[in-house]
Amino acid sequence: GGGLSAARVSTISNGGEDNHRAVQFQLSPTGVLKFQQGDITQWSVDGSSDAIVNPANEQMLGGGGADGAIHRAAGRELRAACYNVPEVQPGLRCPTGEARITPGFRLPATHVIHTVGPIYFAHQNPEAALRSAYRNCLRIAKENNIQYIAFTAISCGVYGYPYDEAATVAITAIQEFANDFKEVHIVLFSDDIYNVWLDKAKELLQN
Ligand code: AR6
């Protein structure tokens, strides 16, 4: 990988589990893409305005997977903030492929960007919807002057998106924003998905 050192230190404290080392790729003279294994709820970059991305559902009131973990770690204020996001239809706050931003409350990260990926086998164009989710997260982060952002694998859990295909969409969408962030992190929960995504990054980003 690129191997240049970043200006700031990001931390994921995960109780001393034996993590993979973070691997990073230089996307532009100023922008880095980093892969690490761990728990996104513990992620932050010291002393900066930063955001974790929550793979939520259209109701935005919590759920299982990473969404559940993020809500538990952020505290009840996050649910209240989500509840106050205007509905676009009764009960629906964030349509698939869109993004909304809230504070991070008790999380180490200052912001949470909530997005909704496609349900792979139910959506007519899951690739377009997933790409739109990544782009809208990056767009809203930019609008809020966030220079450090961490994603997990949107739609790759409950929503059933194949890891390999999702990695291509994520990496190519992030590449479009190569000049807009100091660091984009991808924090993957399991060995399995970490290895698939890192292989895809090497394929797409290394000459
Ligand atoms: N840190 C990082 N990644 C995690 C964590 C964590 N703490 N927990 C899970 N993952 P999922 P989706 C990984 O199911 O597929 C929820 O109920 C997980 O292993 O969280 O977009 C929502 O409310 C997988 O790789 O999100 C929605 O209803 C990735 O995060 C629905 O699930 C995403 O898996 C959204 O499904």
TrEMBL record:
Domain Macro: 20-205
Protein name: Macro domain-containing protein
Originating species: Ilex paraguariensis
Portion of the full-length sequence here: 54 to 260 of 260
